[in-house]
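Encode chain A's predicted structure.
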Amino acid sequence: MPLKRMDNVGIVANDLEETIDFFRELGLELEGRAAIEGEWAGRVTGLGNQHVEIAMMRTPDGHSRLELSRFLTPPVVADHRNAPVNALGYLRVMFTVDDIKETLERLSKRGAQLVGEVVDYQDIYRLCYIRGPGGLLIGLAQELS
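Encoded structure for chain A:
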């Protein structure tokens, strides 16, 4: 059976409101919120009795989504927020923006910090990494053509 689509990328956050506000500032839209709990949820995740608050955010084109989660129970057990870009596993999400400079100015008011430098890859992309709320690693790309 062929793959139909990728539905979303999941991000676990300590402060759901701050993370929602940050991604709204970036340009994503809040699609909905829900509390996920119960025996069925624990069977899916393997975490047993869980209680999670989620917020689904979508990109303006409607094709991509982020599922932001805040675990109430069980507590978060691992922290990858200080991992460098070359760490193993799922690490970051990248967004294409119209203007990196303007985006950085807006997001810095919400605590975003530039990881390295803003650089141009040939005459194709302007790229950078930032740390967002709770240390989330986020890539930004601006098409130069």
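The longest strand covers residues 29-37.
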